[in-house]
Amino acid sequence: MIDRLKIHSWLVAILFFLCLANVSAVQAADPLPSWNTGPTKSAIVEFVEKVTRKESPDFVPENQRIAVFDNDGTLWSEQPLYFQFIYGRDQVRKMAPKHPEWKTEEPFASILKGDTKKVLASGEAGLMKVIAATHANMTAEEFRTNAADWLKTARHPKTNRPYTEMIYQPMLELLDYLRANGFKTFIVSGGGADFIRVFAEQAYGIPPDQVVGTSLKAKYEVRDGKPVIVKLPEINLVDDKEGKPVGIHQYIGQRPIFVAGNSDGDYQMLEWATAGKGPRFGIILHHTDAKREWAYDRDSHIGQLNKGLDDASKKGWTVIDMQKDWKTVFPPSKQ
Amino acid sequence: MIDRLKIHSWLVAILFFLCLANVSAVQAADPLPSWNTGPTKSAIVEFVEKVTRKESPDFVPENQRIAVFDNDGTLWSEQPLYFQFIYGRDQVRKMAPKHPEWKTEEPFASILKGDTKKVLASGEAGLMKVIAATHANMTAEEFRTNAADWLKTARHPKTNRPYTEMIYQPMLELLDYLRANGFKTFIVSGGGADFIRVFAEQAYGIPPDQVVGTSLKAKYEVRDGKPVIVKLPEINLVDDKEGKPVGIHQYIGQRPIFVAGNSDGDYQMLEWATAGKGPRFGIILHHTDAKREWAYDRDSHIGQLNKGLDDASKKGWTVIDMQKDWKTVFPPSKQ
Fold first, then answer.
1. Rounded CA gap, B10 and A12, in Å?
2. What is the pLDDT of residues A88-112, one digit of tens each?
3. Same structural domain for residues A184 and A244?
4. How confident is the model at residue A24 (pLDDT cuts 50, 70, 90)?
5. pLDDT of residue A26
6. Phi, psi for residue B278 in degrees, rounded to 5
7. What are phi and psi of A77, to 5 degrees?
8. Of the candidates B16, B184, B201, which has its C-beta nearest A63's C-beta?
9. B218 within domain boundaries
10. Chain A CB within 8 Å of residue B218 CB
C-alpha cells in the first residue's frame, strides 16, 4: 500500500511539473545570457517587469505591449554597406549579360566596375534606377525567390558568413524575452519590407505581417489566367526618419511602448514612441566594437548616429555600448 | 491509508483535467453553434480539419494559416449605407455650426438637408471633400477619439442598436474557431483602416495591426514639443477591388489560404487567394434575409454582388445563404 501511495505521490509531482514547466523555466533562467550584468541589462529587465506585473502602477495590458525594432544595425550588421545594397549589386552583376547597355550607363557601369563611391554619388536618381532593375518590374513571388536564393549563397565580405548569421545574439534573446512577456515584436526598417520578409521569420521569429519597411507601389494583374502581384518602380513609403512613425501608424496602428534603433534614421520613431503616456522604453545600439563588429557613429556614411547620441540622456533613452554590454555579438554558425 | 490514497487519485484526476481542459473543450463542443447544419457549415469544418491535422496531405503549417475577412457586409451590416458614411454625415452635422459656408457648398449642403441621393451623386470629388473635413487635417488621436465617441452614442436607424452590435454572431464564431485552430485573422476592408481599428479588437478580437483598409497619407510633426501623426486629405491606398490583393501584399506579405467577402469589391481578393497552391477556402456571404437583416445582391447600390455570384461555383467558392445557413444573425444586445 505504501508503494502505491508513493507512486501516486510521484505522479502528482510529475504532473505539477508538466503543468508548470514553462512558467518556472522562464522565471529561473537568465533570459538574456549574452548581455553582461550592468545598468543596460538591468534597465531592460526592470522595464519589462514593471509593465507586466499585474499589481504594478506601470502595468500595461498585453494588447498594448508593442515593441518595434529597426533592422539594419539594430538586429543585424550594416557594414561595410547595407546588405540589401549588396543584394542589388549582386543582382546587377547577375543580370548584366542581358544588359550590354549597362557597360556605359550609370550607375550600372560603376556597379559593374566595383566603384562603390561613384555608385553612391549617383544619388537618389541612381538608386531608383537600380531599384527599378533589381526590385521592380517583376512579380512579388519572383522577387521573393531571387532574394531567398541570394541569402542562401551570398557571404559577407569580412566574415565569410551568410548574411542571416550576421544577426545579433543579444537582440535575438531580447526579442524572445519580450515575446515571452506578452509583447508583440515588429520590425520597422528603412530597408525593403519585401526583402526583410524573406528571412525575418526564420532569423528573428518575426512573421511577414509584423515587418514594416520601405516599399514600392504594386498592382494586381491576371497574367495568362494566373493572378499575380507586380512590383512597380515607384516608391510607396520611405520608412526612414519621419517616415518611421508614419509607417508605424499606417501598418501597426498603435504607438509602441518599446523601441530600439541605432541611427539617426530611428530618431523620430524613438521620439514619438517614448513621448506617449505611461511607461516607455527607448534603446539606441551604439556600435563601439571594432574588434568583434564595427565601431562607428557621428561620421559614418552608413548608420550615422549623431543627434541620437546628443539627445539620448535628455530623452531618457538607454544607450547600449556594444563592447561593454554584450558578451557575444553573433550566434554560433550553423554552417 | 486508503483515504489518503483516494485523495491522491483524485488529485491526479483533477490535475489531468486542468492540463487538458482547453483541448477537450474545443474538441467536444460545436464551435459554430449559430450555423445551421448543412453543406456550408460542413465545408468550413472539413477545410479547417484537413489543414490542421498533422497527418493530412493538405496540412498547412501554422505560420501560413492566414485568414482575411472583408468588413462591411461580411463582419457587420452595411445597409442602408456604409456605417462609416453615416459617421461622416454625423460629423458634418456636428461641425456645421462652425462652417456657415456649408449651407450652400456641395456636398455639405445636401448632407445637412439629408438628401442622400444628391450626396452620392457628388461622386469622388464630393466624397474627398467630406473625407478631408471629417477624416483628415487632424491628428490620429483626435480622429480616434471622435470615432470612439460616435460609436458609443450613435444608433442604427432601423434597429436602434449601436453599430458595434450590428455584427454577425456566426462570423464571430468563425473567427474564434479559426483562431483556436492556429489561424491568424485579418480584416481587409474597403473602409478606413483607422476607423475600423477603433472597434475591431473589442468587436472581433482583431488587433489594430491586423486591420488592412483604405487609408489616407499621413505626416509626422512635432507640435509645441509634442510629437503627433497628422492625417492628410490625400488617399494613400484604396483597399477595394484590385486594391485588396495589393493591400494584402503590402500589409500582410503572404497570400491568405482562407478568404471571406460579400461583394464584387472582394472579387480580386478571393480570386488571388484561392488561386494559390495547396488548400484554399473562399467564402461569399449572400445577403438573402430581408426579415432578419437585408436581402440584396446584383442591383444593390451598396455591396453589389454580381460577378461573384456568377463565378462562385466555377471558382469553387462557398456561398453562404444567410437565411438558410445562419441560426442567428446578430449577437444578443449588451445594452
1. 10
2. 999 999 999 999 999 999 999 999 9
3. yes
4. very low
5. 47
6. 80, -175
7. -65, 165
8. B201
9. yes
10. yes
What CATH number did the domain enclosing A221 receive?
Answer: 3.40.50.1000
Give burial (CB, 10 Å; 0-12/13-18/19+) of A208: buried
- Residue B292 counted as domain residue: yes
- Look at residue A67 and give its three-state secondary structure: strand
Q: Which of B12, B18, B250 sits opposite A11 (nearest CB)?
A: B12
Q: Which of B153, B180, B202 is the last residue of a domain?
A: B153
Is A7's pLDDT higher than 90? Answer: no
The answer to whether residues B195 and B95 belong to one domain is no
Same domain, A44 and A108: no
Å between B63 CA and nearest CA of chain A: 8
Close Cβ partners of A88 (under 8 Å, ≥ 6 residues apart): A130, A131, A134, A135
Q: Assess whether pLDDT exceeds 70 at residue B217.
A: yes
CB of A6 less than 8 A from some CB of B? no
For residue B300, the model assigns a pLDDT of 95
More confident residue, B26 or A3: A3
B224 and B105 in a common domain = no
Interface contact flag, B63 A249, Cβ < 8 Å: no
- In chain B, the number of structural domains is 2
Percent of chain B with pLDDT over 90: 87
CA-only gyration radius of chain A, Å: 23
The CA distance from A257 to A249, in Å, is 13
Do A128 and A249 fall into the same domain?
no
Tell me: do B62 and B144 sit in the same domain. Answer: no
- Tens-digit pLDDT profile for residues B79-119: 999 999 999 999 999 999 999 999 999 999 999 999 988 88
Of B44, B111, B106, which Cα lies nearest the Cα of B259? B44
* Chain B residue at shortest CA distance from A240: B220
Given a cut of 60, whether residue B11 has pLDDT beyond it is no
Q: Measured between CB atoms, which of A2, A229, A252 is closest to B208?
A: A252
Average pLDDT, whole number, for chain B? 93
Whether residues B173 and B59 share a domain: the answer is yes
**Is any Cβ of chain B less than 8 angstroms from the Cβ of A207?**
yes
For residue B17, being part of any structural domain is answered with no
Yes or no, beta carbons of A275 and B226 under 8 Å apart: yes
Confirm or reject contact between A294 and chain B (CB < 8 A).
Answer: no
Judge whether residue B235 has pLDDT over 70: yes
Distance of alpha carbon B159 from alpha carbon B164, whole angstroms: 12
B180 confidence band (pLDDT: 50, 70, 90): very high
| pLDDT at residue A306, as a whole number | 98
Domain assignment present for residue B19? The answer is no
Could you tell me if A39 and A74 lie in one domain?
A: yes
End-of-domain residue from the set B153, B177, B204? B153
Question: Chain A, 67-106: which have a CB under 8 Å from a chain B CB?
Answer: none
* Residue A260: domain span: 31-78+167-325
Q: What are phi and psi of A300, to 5 degrees?
A: -75, 145
Q: Which of A193, A220, A271 sits opposite B227 (nearest CB)?
A: A271
